[in-house]
């Protein structure tokens, strides 16, 4: 694989940054990768495990001379981090991010970046419930989608290079506008995470009350919920606070459907339940027939391309 950038700077060294680093190394996609993390502990861990060619003690040092800067921090602090890096960016550099929410991140970051710097927001649809510098692996993005959300008028060459980086890291790249992205992700990722958090919370309450063995005897569906509900609390707090409108819209619809199902159960309306489950089964089968299924071990960890 050909080198895409001379120097890439990763800001925030958690799951996504560390996975991107290993994928860049695997593909020979950059000459040098610098990294910065806020905490001494994370920087020490990064040095210990060889995460980044050079771990820097300041953002200034990490971004100096970088032709690509990737913001890999929780979405709630993207703006603050953009303000920190802005004075140190090289002219003509590209700044991107990997945040799970796009419109709010664009509003936070955009105003801080100087003219002559290309800002191309991004979001790899791949992850796990693990976080931190030790959690990354080179294959995370293989055959997953990565969505780029360039604002109008963005330099086409800058977009092509960022696309080449993600493709080199194994991903399939598509472009989308920010509002659409946030609505789609509210349906496919954000609301499901909230439902998983709730379900695990309910089961935990129940366990406390009855002292039963909810967790011990949990079936596969509930185990998937517990995996998802083990995801990083800071990251997910920020997702819900920054994708508020789309998430509330989807949760409103979810609640209406849930109430309708609840009513059908109470009134013994088996036809309603059967018709509903028949419709949802057809949707799942349609996904499989279209070749858009995720294979079993990776189920739920990200969207795969057909
Ligand atoms: N975890 C996942 O499955 C996915 C996460 N994302 C997005 O990627 C971004 C990073 O997530 P992960 O790598 O999973 O998180 P992580 O928790 O593994 O790493 C985040 C890193 O950011 C650092 N950080 C936090 N606040 C900071 C600040 N104010 N200044 C500097 N550094 C700070 C943390 O110390 C940590 O090193 C988030 O925006 C998230 O929405 C995108 C796709 C999947
Ligand atoms: O672990 C899971 O189930 C995920 O859904 C991973 C994930 C989390 C957040 C994203 O923005 C994208 C992918």
TrEMBL record:
Keyword Oxidoreductase set for record: yes
Domain Prephenate/arogenate dehydrogenase: 6-295
Name this protein carries in UniProt: Cyclohexadienyl dehydrogenase
Superkingdom classification of source: Bacteria
Classification via InterPro entries: 6-PGluconate_DH-like_C_sf, NAD(P)-bd_dom_sf, PDH_C, PDH_N, Preph/Arog_dehydrog, Prephen_DH
Keywords tagged on the record: Oxidoreductase
Keyword Oxidoreductase: yes
GO molecular function (one): prephenate dehydrogenase (NAD+) activity
Catalytic activity, EC: 1.3.1.12
């Amino acid at each position: 694989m050909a080198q895409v950038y001379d120097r890439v700077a990763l800001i925030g060294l958690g799951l996504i940054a560390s996975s991107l680093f290993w994928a860049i190394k695997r593909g020979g996609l950059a000459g040098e990768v610098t990294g910065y993390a806020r905490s001494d502990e994370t920087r020490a861990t990064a040095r210990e495990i060889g995460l980044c060619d050079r771990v820097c003690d300041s953002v200034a040092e990490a971004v100096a001379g970088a032709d690509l800067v990737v913001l890999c921090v929780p979405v709630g602090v993207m703006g603050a981090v953009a303000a920190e890096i802005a004075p140190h960016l090289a002219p003509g550099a590209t700044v991107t991010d990997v945040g799970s929410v796009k419109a709010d991140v664009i509003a936070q970051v955009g105003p801080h970046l100087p003219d002559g710097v290309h800002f191309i927001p991004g979001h790899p649809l791949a992850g796990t419930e693990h976080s931190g510098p030790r959690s990354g692996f080179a294959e995370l993005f293989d055959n997953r989608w990565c969505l780029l959300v360039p604002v109008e008028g963005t330099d086409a060459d800058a977009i092509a290079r960022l696309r080449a980086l993600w493709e080199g890291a194994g991903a399939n790249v598509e472009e989308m506008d920010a509002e659409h992205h946030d609505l789609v992700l509210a349906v496919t990722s954000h609301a499901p995470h909230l439902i998983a958090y709730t379900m695990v919370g309910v089961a935990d309450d129940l366990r406390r009350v009855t002292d039963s063995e909810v967790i011990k005897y949990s079936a596969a569906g509930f185990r998937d919920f517990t995996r998802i509900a083990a995801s990083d609390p800071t990251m997910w707090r920020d997702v819900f606070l920054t994708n508020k409108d789309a998430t509330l819209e989807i949760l409103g619809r979810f609640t209406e459907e849930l109430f309708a199902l609840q009513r059908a159960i109470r009134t013994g309306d088996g036809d309603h339940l059967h018709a509903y489950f028949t419709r949802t089964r057809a949707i799942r089968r349609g996904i499989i027939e279209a070749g858009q299924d995720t294979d079993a071990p990776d189920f739920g960890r990200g969207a795969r391309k057909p």
